[in-house]
Amino acid sequence: MKSKQVLERIIENVEESEAYIDEKLNQIRRPYLESWLLPLTVGTTLSLEAAHLAKLAEKEIMQYEPLIRSFVGEAYPFLQSIISYGVLTGSIVCGVLPITLALHRHYRLKNLKHYDSLSAKADRVLEHFYKVAKKKISKNEYLNNKVTRGMVHAVNNGVTLTGLNLLGMEAFAYENITKFPSLTSLSTGILAGIIGIKTSQDIYDYFKERQPVVPLKNRWQAKVPLIYALSALSLANSVQQTGLPEFRLVSIKIIEDAVKIESREKISEPKKYEITQDGKMNYWNAAAYFAEMYSDDKVTLDPDFLRAVFFVESGFKHFKGRNVLVSKDKAYGLGQQTEGNIKTLNSEIKIGNLKGDLFKWEEVIKKPEENIRATVASFRRLISQCETNTSCLEETLAKYNAGEGSVAKAKEKVENDNFWIYGKLLPRAKETDLFVRSVMIYYYFLKEEIAWPTTNTKINSRYGLREGEQHNGIDIAPRIKGVSGDDIYAIASGVVTETAKNNGNGVYVKINHADPNLKLYSTYLHGLHKSIQVKEGDEVERGEQIMQMGSTGKSTGVHLDLRISVESLGKTYFFNPLSFYSFARGEFGSREYILVKLPKEK
User: Fold this and answer.
1) What is the distance between the alpha carbons of residues 583 and 576, in angstroms, rounded to a whole number?
2) Which has more confidence, 173 or 334?
3) CB within 8 Å of 148: residues ≥ 6 apart
4) Alpha-carbon distance 490 to 522, whole Å?
5) Contact, 168 vs 237, CB < 8 A?
6) Rounded CA separation 55/63 (Å)
7) Last-in-domain residue among 448, 471, 488
8) What residues contact 284, with CB distance under 8 A and at least 6 apart?
C-alpha cells in the first residue's frame, strides 16, 4: 500500500515538474517568438512587398518611355531609377518600419485589455455559432472523416505552414546564391537559408507543443502562433512574387499596345497617306506625302525608307517638351537638320536640281512639316548621285550622317564603293556604322512585315533593366501557363546560323536576316528539348515553325525569350523587339499632326 502511495506521489511530482518546465519553456519561447521573430518576419514580408511595388512602378514608367523621353531626354534612366528607389524607400520608411516597431512594442508591453473589452460580445456570438457548427459537422461524414481530420491535424501541428515558410526562404536563398553571384548576394542567400531553417523549426516546435486551435475563450493568446504562421505564409508568397525558379506564383502580366495582334500572319497595313479636310496630316503620312512630291522619273523615294530614317534620328519626334529636339551637334527636329545642309538644299533649288520653295532655317527648326520636307529633299539629292536608288542606300545614309566629304575620302583610301568596306575609315565610324545598320534594320522589318513568333501575345518580362540586370529581349508567355509545346515561328525570312543548347540560353535557334553584310540576327531562347526543326544553314521563311516553347537553360518557367541584335564593328547591340512591331504598325509619328498646303480646287 505504501509503495503504491509512493509511486503515486512520484508520478504527481513528475507531472508537476513537467508542467513547471513546460511553463518555463513557454515563458522563454513566447517572448522570443512574439516580440522579435514575429515583427522581424512581418517586416521582411512588407519589405519584399515594397520591393515588388517598386518593380511594378518601374515597369509602369517604362510603358510611357517615349512620352517621358520627349520631356527629359537622356535623363530618363536616372528619373526611372529615382522613382523606383523613391517608391521603395518611401514604402519602407512610411510603412514597413512603423508597422514592425509597433508590432514589437505591442507584444513587448502585452497591453491587450482593449482587445478583451471589444471582443466580449463577439465571444458570445461565436460560442453559439460554434455549438451549432460542431453539431452539424460531427454528423457530416464528408466533413468529419480521416482525411479532413488528418489535414486539420497537420495544420495544427504547423506542418503546412512550416513547409510554406521553409519553401519561401530557401527559394529566396537559392535565387540570391545562383542568380546574383556577388559577395553581398551570396551572403544574403546564405543568411536567408539559415533563417528559413531556424524559423521553420521554431514554428513547427511551437505548434507541436501547444497544439493551437481557434478556441472560443482566450482567443488572443491562441492567435499569436496563428498570426506568426500567416506571416510565414505571406513571406513565402511575397518572396515568390519577386520571381523564383520554378516556384513563381504570380507573373507580371503586361499587355503592350504594340503587340495586341490578332494574327501573326500580317500586322502592317499599306503605307498610304491621308489628308484630313482641314489640311492636317500626321508625321507618318507626311513622309509618304513629301516622298511623292520629290519623286520623279529619275528617282523614286520609298516612304518606308524615310520613315526608318525619322524613327532612328528622332523617334519620330520634333519637340522635346516645349522645345525643339536638338542634338549636341546642333542638329534639329525630326530629321536632325543642320543649317549647312539647308544652305546646300537652297543652292540646289536655285539651279533647278530640286523643286519646291526655298527653305528658311527658322521654319525648318520650328515647323515639323518644313523639317520633314527638308529631310526628304536631302535624300532626294543624295540618292540622285547613285546609279540606282536601291544599291546605294547604305552610302546615302553614311553621307547623311558623316558628310559627303568624309565618305569621298574614305572611298578614295580603299578604292572601293562598298560601304561595309570603306565605312570603317570614316571619322566617327562607330556612330555612322550603327546609324546605317539601325535604319536598314527598321526599313527591312517594315518591308518584310515582321511576324509574331508565337500564338500568344502576353508579355511576362520586357526589354530593359530587370532586377538590376539588363534583359536583352522580351519574354513571351505560353498560351497555358506553365505548359510547354507552343510552336515558335521565324519572325522573318533568313538563314539559320546556330542551333544549340547551353546552360544559359537552353535550347535556342539563331537566324541571320536580310543582307549578310547587315549582320542582323533574331534569337529564340529556352526552347523545348529535342524540338528544334531546323539545322544550321537552312533557309527559313517568315512564319515558318522552327521549334517549340520550353523552359531550358536559365529560365524561371515556360516562355520564349526573343532577342533581336546586330553586330557593328565587332560589337553586338540589342534592340527592343517591341519597337519593331510598333514601328511596323505605324504607331510612331501617328499622333502628331502638321498642316500641309492643299491644291486649290479648279
Assistant:
1) 11
2) 334
3) none
4) 8
5) yes
6) 13
7) 448
8) 307, 316, 586, 588, 589, 590
Residues 580, 263 contacting (CB under 8 angstroms): no
H or E stretch at 564: strand 560-568
263-285 pLDDT, tens digit each:
333 334 434 566 666 677 888 88
Q: Kindly state whether residues 425 and 341 are assigned to the same domain.
A: yes
Asked if pLDDT for residue 208 goes beyond 70, the answer is no
Residues 441 and 515 in one domain: no
Q: Rounded to whole angstroms, how far apart are CA atoms 396 and 281?
A: 27
Neighbours of 594 (CB within 10 A): 21
Predicted pLDDT of residue 6: 53
CA separation for the pair 81, 58 (Å, rounded):
8
> Is residue 213 domain-shared with residue 314, that is, in the same domain?
no
The DSSP result for 465-496, as a single string, is: EETTEEE-SEEEPPSSTT----EEE-SS-EEE
* CATH code at position 438: 1.10.530.10
Q: Which residue has the cell 545562383?
A: 178
Instruction: Output 351 or 246, whichever has higher pLDDT.
Output: 351
Give the separation between CA 347 and CA 340, rounded to whole angstroms.
Answer: 11
Task: Give the position of cell 522573318.
Answer: 492
Share of the chain above pLDDT 90, in %: 33
pLDDT tens digits, 122-152: 455 545 555 555 555 555 554 455 555 555 5
Query: CA–CA separation, 374 vs 349, rounded Å?
Result: 12
Residues 6+ apart with CB under 8 A from 33: 202, 206, 224, 225, 228
Cell of 131: 455549438
CB distance 493 to 451 below 8 Å: no
**48 and 167 inside one domain:** yes
Q: Mean of the pLDDT values across residues 415-429?
A: 89
- Number of other CB atoms surrounding residue 352 within 10 Å: 7
Give Dmax over CA atoms of the chain in angstroms. Answer: 135
Helices of type H across 294-367:
303-314, 339-350, 361-366
The answer to whether 583 and 446 are in contact (CB under 8 A) is yes
